[in-house]
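## Example pair
The file below holds two records. Each record gives the amino-acid sequence first, followed by its structure token line.
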Amino acid sequence: MIRAEGNCLAHVANGRIATDAKRDLGPRLVALDAALTSVLASYGPGAAAVEEVFVNKNAQSTLKLGQARGVVLLAAAKAGLIVGEYAPSLVKKAVVGTGAADKDQVHAMVSRLLPGVAIDGPDAADALAVAICHAHHLGTARATG
């Protein structure tokens, strides 16, 4: 979660929602929805953004990621938010300057763009990067609109 005021970005919160990997997928998706609904109600964001799903080597992992992503989109829609969707390469380009950046580069630039932030792991860094990308795109749309 970030706050964007003009060109100024500020960290609000970050973290990870963990579900019990030993449970079946259905209950894990329900837990994800409940946690996201709580976060959205607590912070009341004005916008949301997600990374587009990419196909990886493991089809099962891709399918599960897509199902979790669907829960995220549903939670945002239930909260009345329009969701920006960005390809991983576009997120990397917006934050690092190149679409081929690795996770360490993304993490380092997120830390630089949000000074003093304590990032809760690589997934949280990626989520903050998506938020930064979305803020940049919304700012550009307002400036040119």
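Second record, same layout:
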Amino acid sequence: MVSIPFAFTGVILGLLITGTSLNIIAALGAIMLVGIVVKNAIVLIDFTNLMRDRNYELDEAIKRAGRSRLRPVLMTTATTILGMLPLALSTGEGSEIWSPMGVAVIGGLTLSTLVTMVIVPVVYRVVVRRSESRKSKETEELEFMEA
């Protein structure tokens, strides 16, 4: 969920840079983008959890997941961007309707992919550290009460 706001920021930046207006078709592209962005983050976090289950330390699990899942995330991004490129660059009849979708998806996916590979692991690390800290405090309190 952390990368979704950055996807929408990328949509807005893409539309501003190209001078394209936000319309219902661009909004439809933004909704489609949410699914792709969330999937990319899930791929990364799921592999991190797998590494944690295999008894890797938190930082090492994050590093391994980043290295291992970079290619699948980039492949998904590249294929989607390349698929939307003709839509974004089209100048033929009716292109003014569909072009904003291509621009929105390309802009949002470009920014959110960068964020997914950097910000999502950082947020994951913070959340896990806090959770582990809270659990250890609860355990200490229980041990103190039993003694």
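Notes on the second record: The radius of gyration is 20 Å. The mean pLDDT is 90.
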